[in-house]
Specification:
2 copies of one chain form a homodimer. By secondary structure, chain A is mainly α. Chain A has 2 domains: 58 residues, Multidrug-efflux Transporter Regulator, Chain: A, Domain 2 (Orthogonal Bundle), CATH 1.10.1660; 67 residues. Helices cover 62% and strands 3% of the residues of chain A. Chain A has 6 helices and 2 strands. In chain A, strands 1-2 form a two-stranded antiparallel ribbon. In chain A, strand 1 and strand 2 form a beta hairpin. In chain A, helix 4 runs antiparallel to helix 5. The radius of gyration of chain A is 23 Å and the shape is elongated. The N and C termini of chain A lie far apart (49 Å). The model of chain A has no long low-confidence stretch (mean pLDDT 78). Chain A binds a DNA duplex through helix 2.
Chain lengths: 138, 138
DNA sequence: TCTTGATGCTCTAGTGACTAGAGGCCCTAC
DNA sequence: GTAGGGCCTCTAGTCACTAGAGCATCAAGA
């Protein structure tokens, strides 16, 4: 049996976050000891590990709820898990593409003023004027 | 003179968002007509355009506040604007790097189950087990 | 057994950057 | 004059936490 603090250390999820997950129904309510403190078993540890890993992979808590609801089921559920994972992948790829456009735009803007201070703040001008931009970020 | 709705259409910033920007002191309070409705001039349009573009580039409202406070000043302020832009660039590059790790991890997980349903939900297993991961995402 | 400091509990409120809705006022075109 | 759209303020909700208050409990050492 683990205390909430031990669980926190083991998984890298902060204590208030664990309580928050419980509050929103993502983690099942654990048992309590005589002093009303939470006591977790291996299943609690596994569930939190699953959540942590999925969060690190960028899944929303809503997605994770769906994925956890599916666990242990068969057939269609697997297709659903796959669908969620693929949609998350598409989402991530899209974010990468957008960020790459931003990076090149920011690079362009940064090069306008190379640290000196001779007649610059073209940085501010560039920020104010989208029409100067090459790509279609946003 | 523009109404808030016209400003919204012209800049692509939603009406409640414009009011929000005003509320937090990012946009100066505009004049009002006899019926207490906001009326903006070209300066308001320019300021909102600046904010919009900077937001699209991923700057936080806090950053934008700093950048706008600097505008029109000299010397050090330019260096400061440059510093903010560069730090934003570093930030964006870092996010790209992390997302690329996530994408490759998600690709790996997605390939575990190619839509079929024969003994799969290795997707769920993979999500639960970080030790299977190649890279050091998170 | 007592004490001390860490850890735990609940509850409320705050973060950033909006978004939604209620309930009412104003403006413009017909 | 009226209809409808736009505008006003205010409150509350979103997501995924984070911080703090004020108190209870636990484990280790004296």
């Amino acid at each position: 049996m683990f205390s909430i603090g031990q669980l926190s250390k083991a998984t890298g999820v902060k204590v208030p976050t664990i309580r928050y997950y419980e509050e929103i129904g993502l983690l099942p309510q654990p048992g309590r000891n005589a002093g009303n403190q939470r006591r977790y078993g291996q299943d609690g540890m596994d569930a939190l590990g699953f959540i942590k890993h999925a969060r690190d992979l960028g899944f929303s808590l809503e997605d994770i709820k769906a994925l956890m609801g599916l666990d242990g089921h068969l057939g269609d559920d697997c297709a659903e898990a796959d669908r969620i994972a693929r949609s998350q992948l598409a989402n991530v790829r899209d974010r990468i593409r957008k960020l790459q456009q931003l990076a090149s735009e920011l690079e362009r803007i940064s090069h306008l003023c190379d640290g000196g201070n001779g007649g610059c703040c073209k940085v501010l001008t560039a920020l104010g004027d989208h029409s100067q931009c090459a790509g279609d970020h946003s």
